[in-house]
Specification:
Length: 290
C-alpha cells in the first residue's frame, strides 16, 4: 500500500502541451507513471507525447478515467485549474505552480474543503511512490522502494532525505512535497496522518521550515495520538533573520514560536527524533529503525 498515488492511479497533466508540462510529463512517462492524457483548452482531440489531449478535465475524467491531476499552469490561471479539477471529480490534485496569488488560494481552499479531494501544493515538487508513480518534478532515480515516508516543505531537502535514507540501506514508501506557500492544500499533520495509517510505512521523516505553525501542530498531534511510528524531524532556516522571507513565501519568522529553534524544541518535547543538520537524517532513520 502507498499513499496518494500508486501504479493504479490514472494521471492527467493540466498544461500538458506547454514547455513545463511537456518536459515533466515526458519524465513521468519515462519513469513508468500511468499518464493517461493531458488538458490544454482548444487542443482537444490532438495527441501529445503519445497521449490524448482533452479540452477540459471533465472530458479527461469521462473519457480516460482520470483520478489524479498534476498542474503546470501559469500562476494567473492556476487557481481556476485546481478548482476545475476538483469540480470534475479528480481525487488527488498536485499543483506544482509557484507564485499563485494568496487571495486566489483563499478561494481555492474554501472550494477544496467543500469537495471530496486532496490538494497537494501549490509551489511543491509533487508526490512519488517509488517504482509505481512519479507525479511531480523530483529526480526519480534517487528514490527506491521501502518503508520510510517523507513529508517535506522543501523540494531539494525531499531529494536529499530520500538519497540519505536509500544510502543507509532503507527505502521510501511515498514522498510528499507539501509546498512552501502560506496557504497549501495539505498540511504537515494531514500528510503525517496518511503515513500513520499506511501499513507499509514504518518510519516518517518530517522536514519543515521556519514560519507558520504546521510542524508544531503536527508534533502535538503525533504526541496526542501516541507516537505510533518513529518520526525523524528537521527544520530548515536555523540562521534566518526575523521578519525576512527566506526561500518559500511561507518561510518567514513572525514571532518567537515559529523560529527553527522553537519548532525543534516543540518537536523534541513531543517525542520526535530531531536532527540539527539535514546531513544527519539518514543516520537517524537507521538508528530508530535499527
Amino acid at each position: 500500500m502507498s499513499v496518494l498515488v500508486n501504479k493504479n492511479s490514472k494521471i492527467i497533466v493540466q498544461g500538458f502541451t506547454g514547455n513545463e508540462g511537456t518536459f515533466h510529463a515526458e519524465q513521468m512517462i519515462e519513469y513508468g507513471t500511468n499518464v493517461v492524457g493531458g488538458v490544454t483548452p482548444g487542443k482537444g482531440g490532438q495527441e501529445h507525447l503519445g497521449r490524448p489531449v482533452f479540452n477540459t478535465v471533465k472530458d479527461a475524467v469521462e473519457q480516460a478515467g482520470a483520478d489524479v491531476s498534476i498542474i503546470f499552469v501559469p500562476p494567473a490561471f492556476a487557481a481556476d485549474a485546481i478548482m476545475e479539477a476538483a469540480d470534475a471529480g479528480i481525487k488527488v490534485i498536485i499543483a506544482i505552480t509557484e507564485g499563485i496569488p494568496v487571495a486566489d488560494m483563499v478561494n481555492v481552499q474554501a472550494y477544496i474543503d467543500a469537495r471530496d479531494c486532496t490538494l497537494i501544493g501549490p509551489n511543491c515538487p509533487g508526490v512519488i511512490t517509488p517504482g509505481e508513480a512519479k507525479v511531480g518534478i523530483m529526480p526519480g532515480f534517487i528514490f527506491k522502494k521501502g518503508k520510510v515516508g517523507i513529508v517535506s516543505k522543501s523540494g531539494t531537502l525531499t531529494y536529499e532525505a530520500a538519497d540519505q535514507v536509500v544510502k543507509a540501506g532503507y527505502g521510501i514508501s511515498t514522498a510528499i512535497g507539501i509546498g512552501g506557500d502560506p496557504i497549501i492544500g495539505t498540511t504537515t499533520k494531514e500528510a503525517i496522518e496518511l503515513f500513520m495509517n499506511d501499513d507499509e510505512t514504518e518510519c516518517i521523516v518530517m522536514i519543515g521550515e521556519i514560519g507558520g505553525q504546521l510542524e508544531a501542530d503536527a508534533a502535538r498531534w503525533i504526541k496526542e495520538t501516541g507516537n505510533k511510528k518513529p518520526v525523524v524531524g528537521f527544520i530548515a532556516g536555523q540562521t534566518a533573520p526575523k521578519g525576512r522571507t527566506m526561500g518559500h513565501a511561507g518561510a518567514i519568522v513572525g514571532g518567537k514560536d515559529d523560529t527553527a529553534q522553537a519548532k525543534m524544541a516543540i518537536m523534541s518535547e513531543c517525542g520526535i527524533h530531531v536532527v540539527e543538520s539535514p546531513a544527519k537524517i539518514g543516520a537517524k532513520v537507521a538508528e530508530v529503525l535499527g
